[in-house]
Protein: NlpC/P60 family protein
Amino acid sequence: MSKRGIPYVWGGTTDRGYDCSGLTLKAYAAAGIELPRTAEEQYNAFTRKIAWDDLKPGDLVFFHGLGHVGMISRPGYMVHAPHTGDVVKEEQLSAWRKDSFVGAVRPDRKGVERWAQIQKQRRAPAPAMPTATL
Structure:
């Protein structure tokens, strides 16, 4: 909440400016939890998804085909970095937001560690295949 009023900056992760996922990345880093960088990666890092009716402060909420993320600040509200030309702010969760809701996650260290292991496996080179000779 202390970041309210800071300008939206695409790719921003500092107090000079934040984008939506940069803001959630910074918030969770302050709590000692390392999140992936983008909204889509943040959503996919956790297998346990939270329903709209079960949202609690600290949950990450995703909208517009995983193109936007905010964090529940209190019941019925989220803090987020909306778009270019705007600033970090708290906003009430409206019917419009509910219509574009994709899902939510409740980040925890185990979930992030599991995501990091999966990403490491994906980046590892494929094992060498035996070559047949004639």
User: Anything to note?
Assistant: Residues 13-118 form a domain with the endopeptidase fold (from Nostoc punctiforme) fold (CATH 3.90.1720.10). The beta strands are 13-14, 17-18, 49-50, 60-63, 68-74, 77-80, 89-92, 101-105. The mean pLDDT is 91. The CA atoms of residues 122 and 129 lie 17 Å apart.
